[in-house]
């Protein structure tokens, strides 16, 4: 995993087996197929590295992630639509199934697809200025199986209803009240709080942590994998509907 400032995914070793993964796709970590696949590869590398005990997932920018790159998406043909769906499924499934502790250090808003960097984390530390939302319904897009099942597994039914059917964001304070965020502090304190929590979680026996996480998330992971396999058999698949691109233009 690159550690140069020009890379879209940066690894920073924090010592004591802790690693910070920095989302670094300027300016707002908008999601593309390439970005998500690089993210998945980075996590696979960390999962296999026996010296890594826990991960902190941060952003290089004021925004944690703004979700799908809508400007790019308006030019998608069917192949590009399918590529981003596959990348959303693979990227966030890889994070959701990551066997080691992963703490989200959220210094800015996480919207639409970008919210899944938060939901797939084990512990979520947020700056008080952040907002969280699932805006897909407002841009005429439904949910790929990976993000959908992660949302179902990590949000209570009323939070799921409000976020998915309105597309409207909520504040960090409201997200904490609903159990979506674990700890809220000033943005300048987020990184230290996240690292402290990662260090605490790293003290748990690693193999046991991985087994318990797999037990807890296994049913959702199985549904995601089955859905991804079904997509491979669908020669006529596509993601966007007739309303999607015009709805995207209104959001820009």
Question: What report would you give on this structure?
Answer:
The chain has 252 residues and is α/β, with parallel strands linked by helices. It has one domain (9-202): 2-enoyl-CoA Hydratase, Chain A, domain 1, CATH 3.90.226.10. Helices cover 48% and strands 15% of the residues. The protein contains 10 helices and 9 strands. The chain has helices spanning 33-48, 70-73, 78-96, 116-119, 145-154, 157-166, 172-177, 187-202, 206-232, 244-251, and strands at residues 9-15, 18-23, 54-59, 102-106, 110-111, 123-127, 131-133, 170-171, 183-185. The strands form 2 sheets. A 6-stranded mixed sheet has the order 1-2-3-4-6-9, with helices on both faces. A hairpin with a 2-residue loop joins strand 1 (9-15) and strand 2 (18-23). The radius of gyration is 17 Å and the shape is globular. The model has no long low-confidence stretch (mean pLDDT 95).
């Amino acid at each position: 995993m690159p550690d140069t400032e020009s890379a879209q995914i940066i690894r920073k070793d924090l010592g004591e087996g802790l690693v910070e993964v920095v989302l670094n796709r300027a300016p707002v970590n908008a999601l593309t197929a390439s970005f998500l696949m690089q993210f998945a590869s980075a996590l696979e590398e960390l999962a296999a590295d026996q010296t890594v005990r826990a991960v902190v997932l941060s952003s290089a920018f004021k925004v944690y992630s703004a979700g799908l790159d809508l400007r790019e998406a308006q030019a998608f043909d069917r192949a590009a639509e399918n590529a981003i769906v596959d990348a959303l499924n693979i990227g966030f499934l890889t994070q959701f199934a990551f066997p080691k502790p992963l703490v989200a250090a959220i210094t800015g808003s996480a919207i639409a697809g970008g919210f899944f960097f938060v939901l797939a984390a084990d512990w979520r530390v947020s700056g008080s200025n952040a907002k969280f939302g699932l805006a897909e319904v407002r841009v005429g897009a439904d949910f790929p199986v990976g993000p959908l099942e992660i949302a179902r597994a990590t949000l209570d039914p009323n939070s799921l209803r409000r976020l998915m059917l309105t597309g409207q964001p909520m504040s960090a304070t409201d997200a904490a009240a609903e159990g979506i965020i674990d700890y809220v502090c000033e943005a300048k304190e987020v990184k230290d709080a996240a690292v402290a929590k990662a260090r605490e979680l790293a003290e748990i026996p690693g193999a046991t942590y991985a087994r318990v996480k797999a037990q807890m998330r296994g049913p959702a992971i199985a549904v995601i994998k089955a859905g991804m396999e079904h997509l491979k058999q669908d020669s006529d698949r596509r993601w966007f509907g007739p309303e999607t691109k015009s709805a995207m233009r209104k959001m820009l």
